[in-house]
Design brief:
The structure holds three protein chains of three kinds.
Chain A lengths: L1 E2 L8 E2 L11 H7 L5 H10 L7 H10 L3 H14 L2 H7 L8 H12 L2 H12 L4 H13 L5 H11 L3 H14 L5 H10 L4 H16 L2
Helix pairs in contact in A: 1-2, 2-4, 3-4, 4-6, 6-8, 8-10, 9-10, 10-12, 11-12
Chain B lengths: L16 H15 L8 H14 L5 H10 L4 H10 L10 H17 L7 E5 L6 H13 L7 E8 L2 H9 L1 E3 L8 H7 E4 L3 E4 L1 H4 L2 E5 L5 H4 L2 E2 L1 E6 L8 H14 E9 L13 E4 L4 E4 L3
Parallel strand pairs in B: 1-2, 1-8, 2-6, 8-9
Antiparallel strand pairs in B: 3-5, 4-5, 9-11, 10-11
Chain C lengths: L2 E5 L3 H13 L3 E5 L2 H10 L4 E5 L7 H10 L8 E5 L4 H10 L3 E4 L4 H11 L6
Parallel strand pairs in C: 1-2, 1-3, 3-4, 4-5
Helix pairs in contact in C: 2-3
Chain lengths: 210, 287, 124
């Protein structure tokens, strides 16, 4: 009793071995269907080293109901990155499941090179919710074209909630070139106190260069 | 300053903006630690130190050596230099109170009789934190006589681990240790230093590990309590999430994790559940 | 006067709600997602929650379910506020534990009135 030390040099802590899957991608894919979420989670983490299994990870995402496994899959997808990941994640923006939507948004923001070429299409999607998610992606996506994209929405979108989010982004990445556009939006939504407030905020930020 | 003989002065080593960017990207890829622009002075100063120390005369030749050195020794030296360690005994003691009064009782409820309780300090730096926990448990947690406790301290920096094993501390480091405990657990050394007694030094298992390295972290598992204080603040979002994933992996279901008092897991990851205890907010891996 | 926690991922929305509610004499704190809100309200309970639905990390529905599960904070009334205007969304909000539902963007007087009702300052 009292303080003890683990007797192995390699692994500290529980030395329970329950490894019956092979340590290659095939074994990991099997493990991804294990009834125990803890083991599915490890498989999802390990598969993050194998870009050629991206589609399997995405498939697993749809049937996975354990939050920690989903998170591990999203993290692995973010680590792999690239066009295929971005392409396969886009449909999740339309998911009814908020966690899947948010997870997809989070990964896409971390893949600027893959997401940027798909941005225009998202920003012109007929579904206002998708346009809002696109603006959510822009909140953190470090991309030089962000101000242009936001300006496009301000100039063309007529959905009040999409405009609301776009003005919020303009407060973050707005440029002096946007001032006129923001004032024009203010006139279009003259009877929306929130939009008026948001535009004042954005204009003040742009003026002070904050 | 000692004036150097003319002509013998070491040539000034410049770190250009481009050098800084390259170094920063490289260091980030290797460690997950990202230096903001406002850390530039700190980084430059230490880089120049390492360049001189290794006998190089420019960033370029030093950087080439770091990247291609097979042993990785100089990278480890760099990591050691770049990660500062500010710590002392009983820092943020309310969290240790929380451990003894609230967290461990709950951990014990879900334990099988013969299972040890496993506690991890990551990063442990020069050992003040895990040793504080050891003292706290011996002093205030009677169950220590009934159960085995595995107390593990890890750090990315091998020099601090060596110092942790030696257990020699300055006056400043032990200033919050009550006199009675100082007498009981430390031996005074010349020069106003204190050394933790050998029987206490043996309580902690020190190991090298990088919290953002999944392969490293897989070597640790089955922990009931993790202390990860004031480390994640140095990381960017992505590395923080990786670290949170890795920490989740080393913990038992129902295990607890404590962060520094200004840190919040809710900005990092939704893997953990927030728990409020009388002494502190703690995060829990769901059962 | 009530202490109100405003939970929304858009900074401008939070400032707007802060302004409107402070004008009505309330004390406002902010959180940018459900997780942060849960942590804040556990540390420091409030009189009312004003909660957006779509947020990263933890959305409004899940946040309210967590609040209703914790006995120390479950009695705090909550107003859900979202862009969705369908009855099914209101029903989801109701099931998650919302007391009232508000479609945004909200007019100041509507928000102030709803908050007064939810905190029991006035009765309907």
């Amino acid at each position: 009793m009292g303080f003890v030390k683990s007797d192995t040099q390699e692994v500290v802590g529980s030395t329970e071995h329950r490894r019956e899957y092979s340590r290659d991608p095939e074994g990991m894919l099997q493990q991804l269907r294990d009834p125990d979420p803890a083991r599915r989670r490890w498989a999802a983490r390990d598969l993050g080293e194998f870009p050629e299994y991206v589609s399997h990870l995405v498939d697993a995402l749809e049937n996975e109901d354990d939050e920690t496994v989903r998170q591990a899959i999203f993290d692995s997808l973010a680590r792999i990155g690239g066009d295929e990941v971005a392409e396969l994640l886009l449909p999740f923006l339309r998911s009814e499941d908020a966690q899947l939507r948010n997870g997809a948004v989070e990964v896409l923001t971390e893949l600027p090179d893959a997401t940027a070429p798909r941005m225009e299409k998202l920003l012109h999607d007929p579904d206002p919710d998708i346009r809002i998610f696109a603006l959510d992606i822009l909140r953190v996506l470090p991309h030089p074209k962000s101000p242009d994209w936001i300006a496009q929405i301000l100039a063309t979108d007529d959905h009040v909630n999409v405009i609301a989010v776009a003005v919020d982004r303009a407060a973050d990445v707005g440029t002096p070139a946007m001032v006129e556009l923001l004032e024009e939006v203010g006139q279009r939504f003259a009877d929306e106190p929130y939009i008026q407030f948001a535009i004042r905020t954005a204009l003040e930020r742009i003026a002070t260069g904050a | 300053m000692t004036p150097l003989a003319a002509g013998k002065e070491a040539p000034a080593i410049q770190i250009t903006d481009a050098d800084f960017q390259r170094f920063r990207d490289f260091f980030y890829r290797k460690t997950g630690i990202w230096f903001e622009e406002n850390r530039r002075y700190f980084v430059d100063k230490r880089l120049v130190e390492r360049i001189r120390e290794t006998g190089h005369d420019s960033f370029r030749s030093y950087f080439t050596m770091v990247r291609f050195q097979a042993s990785g020794e100089e990278l480890q030296n760099l990591i050691n230099t770049m990660t500062v360690n500010e710590t002392y005994f009983f820092r943020e003691e309310y969290q240790f109170d929380c451990l003894v009064n609230s967290v461990l009782p709950e951990v014990m409820k879900n334990k099988r009789p013969d299972d040890p309780v496993r506690i991890l300090c990551m990063p442990c730096s020069t050992g003040e934190e895990p040793y504080s926990i050891a003292i706290k448990l011996v002093e205030e947690w009677p169950e220590i006589d009934e159960v085995d406790v595995e107390l593990v301290g890890t750090d990315i920096d091998t020099t601090v681990l060596e110092r942790a094993r030696q257990g020699i501390y300055t006056k400043r480091s032990v200033q919050h240790v009550p006199p009675a405990l100082l007498k009981k657990y430390f031996d005074p050394l010349p020069g106003n230093h204190w050394q933790l007694k050998a029987f206490m030094r043996q309580c902690v298992d020190f190991r090298q590990a990088n919290v953002t390295d999944a392969a490293d972290m897989k070597r640790f598992r089955g922990f009931d309590v993790v202390f990860c204080r004031n480390l994640l603040i140095y990381f960017d979002d992505r590395s923080r999430r990786e670290a949170a994933e890795n920490l989740f992996g080393v913990m038992n279901p129902g295990g607890f994790i404590m962060l520094g008092h200004s840190e919040s897991m809710s900005r990092i990851s939704s893997l953990f559940k927030v728990r409020r205890f009388p002494e502190a907010i703690v995060y829990q891996r769901p059962l | 006067m009530a202490r109100i926690l405003v939970v929304d991922d858009a900074a401008t929305v939070r400032s707007y709600h802060r302004m409107v509610l402070e004008q009505a004499g309330h004390e406002v704190s902010e959180a940018e997602n459900g997780l942060e809100a849960l942590e804040k309200v556990l540390r420091d309970p409030v009189d009312l929650l004003l909660v957006d639905i779509n947020m990263p990390k933890m959305d409004g529905y899940r946040f309210l379910r967590e609040v209703r599960r914790d006995e120390t904070i479950r009695a705090i009334p909550a107003v859900m506020i979202s862009t969705e205007a369908e009855d099914s969304d209101k029903e989801l909000a109701w099931h998650a534990g919302a007391n009232t539902y508000l479609v945004k963007p909200a007019k100041p007087e509507v928000l102030q009135r709803l908050v007064a009702l939810a905190t029991g300052e006035v009765t309907a």
